[in-house]
Amino acid sequence: MKTITVIKSHRSNYPNPISFEKGDLLSVGVHDDEYAGWVRVTTRDGNEGWAPEQYIELHSDQWIAIESYSSKELNTTVGEKLLVLHELNEWVWVQNSHDRYGWIPLKTTK
After folding, report:
1. Residues 6+ apart with CB under 8 A from 59
2. In this structure, are residues 4 and 88 in contact, taking their beta carbons and an 8 Å threshold?
């Protein structure tokens, strides 16, 4: 697995991350202007957040999750080493040295 180093700290702006399971129905809104491939979704419990377009599909006028997902972001500090577990749409799902997981923008690392 690949290890990266944080060159610009990241702080999540979303204290209540969305999550959904494969097969869940979702409401879909706008596409992200800053990061291509991300769309605003609302889950059944009314929580709203960003999700990757690749994880949802339209079936008979209903948006359905085709993969399970959590939008949890990880707060990072400059110099921190992270293990990359998944990369998608200019973001990476990482693990830090304290066994915490979350998404961070790829552009904040080298």
Report:
1. none
2. no
Residue type, 64: I
Q: Each residue of 11-66: pLDDT tens digit?
A: 999 999 999 999 999 999 999 999 999 999 999 999 999 999 999 999 988 999 99
Q: What is the token pair recorded at 26?
A: 């979702």
CA pair distance 21, 55, nearest whole angstrom: 10
Question: What is the torsion angle, in degrees rounded to the nearest 10, for the CA atoms of residue 107, residue 5, residue 71 and residue 31?
Answer: 10
Structural tokens at position 89: 């749409």
Global confidence as pTM: 0.92
At the second CATH level, the architecture of 3-13+72-108 is Roll (2.30)
Where in the chain is CATH 2.30.30.40? 3-13+72-108
